[in-house]
Every structure is written in structure tokens, then in C-alpha cells.
């Protein structure tokens, strides 16, 4: 019963978030369809798109050890939404409402990183 109430409360909080702001997606997953994989020396950043939202998640090549990781998404004309810290399995997901605007995506694990120009226009 408590678990159901918690899930309902979380869904209610997500519904209050205005378009153009960041949303956290539970359990390290992005909604939408997979549209791009950015491979770099120490990991990958996966990009998803659906219903005007773009979501990204960075995963290390060797999960399990505490490592500095980050992932960021920026819709053109908006501020970047970034998740950065020491994680074991992934950074993110981070989600922004992009509508029909282009986005930039960045990801890093340890000393390796990736970044796009404006994509998904």
C-alpha cells in the first residue's frame, strides 16, 4: 500500500513539472525511442526521443566502481540540464522538453567524454 502511495505521489510531482524544465526518470531509464549512441573511450551516452522530450543517460564501460560521471542535455534556447557526480552504474537520466528544437548532448566517465553539436533538429 505504501509503495503504491509513493508511486502515485511521484507521478503527481512529475505532472506538476512545466514543459521546458528537467524531469527525473526512475530506475535509470529513458522514455521514448533510442535515437543515438555516443561512444567514447570510457563509456557511452545514449539518447532517446519521444513526445517532444529528449532524454540522455551515460553508462561506463566498466560499471560497478565509483567513478565521476556526467550527462547533460540542452534544448536550443534553453539552459543545459546536467547530472554530475560519483556513480557506480550510470549518470542520469536527464530529460528536457525540446519540442521541435535542436539539442546538444554531453557525457563523460572519468577522463573520457563526448559532446555533440546541435542534433535532432
Describe what you observe in this structure.
The longest helix has 15 residues, at 2-16. The protein is elongated, with a radius of gyration of 14 Å. The protein has one domain (20-115). The protein is mainly beta and 121 residues long. Helix content is 12%, strand content 48%. The protein has one helix spanning 2-16; strands at 33-40, 43-50, 53-60, 67-75, 81-87, 91-97, 103-109, 112-115. The strands form two sheets. It has a four-stranded antiparallel sheet with strand order 1-2-3-6, with no helix packed on it. A four-stranded antiparallel sheet has the order 5-4-7-8, with no helix packed on it.
Summarize the structure.
This protein has one helix at residues 2-16, and strands spanning 33-40, 43-50, 53-60, 67-75, 81-87, 91-97, 103-109, 112-115. With 121 residues, the chain is mainly β. It has one domain (20-115).
Spell out the blueprint of helices and strands.
Layout: H1 2-16, E1 33-40, E2 43-50, E3 53-60, E4 67-75, E5 81-87, E6 91-97, E7 103-109, E8 112-115
Antiparallel strand pairs: 1-2, 2-3, 3-6, 4-5, 4-7, 7-8
* Overall spatial form: elongated
Instruction: Tally the helices.
Output: 1
Class by SSE composition? mainly beta
Number of strands: 8
What is the mean predicted local confidence, pLDDT? 84
Signal peptide: 1-24
Protein name: Secreted protein
Organism: Streptomyces actuosus
Keywords: Signal
Key features?
four-stranded antiparallel sheet, 48% strand, 121 residues, 8 strands, disordered N terminus, mainly beta
Amino acid at each position: 500500500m505504501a509503495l503504491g502511495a509513493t508511486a502515485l505521489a511521484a507521478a503527481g510531482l512529475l505532472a506538476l513539472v512545466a514543459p521546458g524544465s528537467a524531469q527525473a526518470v526512475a530506475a535509470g531509464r529513458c522514455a521514448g525511442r533510442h535515437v543515438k549512441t555516443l561512444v567514447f573511450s570510457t563509456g557511452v551516452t545514449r539518447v532517446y526521443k519521444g513526445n517532444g522530450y529528449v532524454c540522455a543517460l551515460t553508462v561506463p564501460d566498466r560499471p560497478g566502481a565509483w567513478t565521476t560521471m556526467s550527462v547533460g542535455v540542452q534544448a536550443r534556447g534553453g539552459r543545459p540540464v546536467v547530472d554530475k557526480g560519483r556513480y557506480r552504474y550510470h549518470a542520469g537520466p536527464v530529460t528536457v522538453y525540446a519540442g521541435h528544437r535542436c539539442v546538444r548532448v554531453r557525457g563523460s566517465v572519468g577522463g573520457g567524454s563526448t559532446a555533440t553539436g546541435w542534433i535532432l533538429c
